[in-house]
Amino acid sequence: MSVENIRNRVIDQTKSRWWYAAFVVLVCFLACSLYYYFFVNKIYVEIELSVAQRCDFKIYWAKGDQLYAEENMSVVIANPERKKYTMFLPNIAKLSRLRIDTHNYQGEATLHKLVMRQEGWGPVNFTSPEQFKVLTPLFQVEEWDAGNDGLWVKSSGNDPTFELLLSPQREALDILWLVIRFIGIAALVVVVMYGAGPLARNLRFVPVLLFGIWLLVITMAGISKENGHPDEYVHLSATTYYEDHWLPPVIEDPAIRDTYSVYGVSRLNNGEVYYLFSGKFTKFAKAFKIPDYFAKRTFNIFLFGLILLYTIRNRYARMAALPFLVSAQIWYLFSYCCSDAFALFFAFLAACQVIDPESLLHRYLKGESWRTKVAGAVVLGVMLGIIFLLKKNYYPFIAFFYLCVLVKILFTNQFYWEKKEAFFRLVLVMLIALGIFGARLGADYGINGLDLNDKIFAMQKELAIPWFNPDTDLSQKHPSIHRKLRGVTVQEIIHNDRWFERVFRTSFGVYGYFTISGTDGYYNLVRWSGVALLAFLFGSFLLRGGLVGGGLATAALGLA
Description:
Elements: H1 3-40, E1 43-51, E2 55-62, E3 73-78, E4 84-89, E5 97-101, E6 108-117, E7 124-126, H2 129-132, E8 136-139, E9 141-147, E10 150-155, E11 161-165, H3 175-195, H4 197-200, H5 205-223, H6 232-243, H7 274-285, H8 292-313, H9 315-321, H10 328-331, H11 339-355, H12 360-366, H13 370-388, H14 395-411, H15 419-448, H16 452-463, H17 490-495, H18 499-507, E12 510-511, E13 516-517, H19 520-544, H20 546-559
Antiparallel strand pairs: 1-4, 1-6, 2-3, 2-5, 5-11, 6-7, 6-10, 8-11, 9-10, 12-13
């Protein structure tokens, strides 16, 4: 090696160290900034509350003449078995009024204590009768009394409210203690980054984190109640049917009445193949004498375990598995019986086939050997056929999968000499997949006749509860459906119902039947972290991916 090469290597290593040091400093700065924003620059509220039934305790905030609004509100879900709660409110310097909704039912409740603290400001305490008397009743408060036990409220409606005019007093901020905390946070970041440094190479941290997630999936599956998750009862009943059957059922069969939801729809009639696999795996799992509801969840646990094993063996699989680390809402689907986990598993496999240059898909399209051609056509055809039998929500993914494959064939050098052959092989895979899809569809029509859809609709009218029944008058149906027919505009749904905010929150942490959610601080942290991540990813695609990478990134965003 020449002196010049050695010199260049030393220079490159020095630059690399400086870039790494700058990255560490940036991460430390971000960690300290986030701590300051979410824990120092916020009001920490301690609440003691007694209620007669499950309800919402809300605090709204406003400044000056600003009206109270749903987007300026924090809420905790209270229940009779629990008294102590906490929440965060925005910086007290930006607030002038608070509206306190003690409960949202007609009846009695007692607010024993309300304490608000923020560093650099005097505490706002409500623990004595004199302090509670400062509150002004606004609406639907029939009776109230401030006593030694706190603020007793008897409401005349479902929304009793009190108002508090804030006059916060500034206090000296303990700068030394704040600096010590910043140093501790930075030191923790440095230790973690140094200790976990080797895991960053080739994304080795992905299987490590996925193993931890897999343990959480198993724990959630074991401790959560049966049907404690969205619509799990319909997935459980459909899985039960396929424990002892191989073919789709007769739609009017009385034996499958329990598989119909309150909407009058059965998962057995939508063509999804998940329930066949889940049913057979459940029957196998029951041989180990485990509870029935847990046995029905083991198939999805098994699928996530396969994802974990794949990432241990393959670097490109780690890239495809990165979305599982973005939101707990994604891997949460593997902790109970539902077809979305099955769909995500096959979406993961398809992504691995596209991005790995040594995958079966790439070797098949290049025609490396006759064994590869046969195995590729069969395996890939079956895999794609199963993807066709997923929920219709995943059809945009199929379009994106084919778009990526066609772009690779036509606009990259990976198939420079085999473009025509690769295209015909892709068509063969498509034909096999359509054959599998047609066989499943044909089984439905063969058993139920050509009037299959009419029979499904008839069962819907017979079994759907009045709120969701097609024969029910529009005025008597559930207010959340057929909103266009009710004259509700898209603008009203977006602004009044906070549609985008609801979609965001249910994507990053709303569990069960929408009964378990996080704090505003958590969602804001996820929101801005997500914005930064998307900006980084799409910036990289557009700047470094060229026309192809930028185009695919734009297509992915559009199909999302």
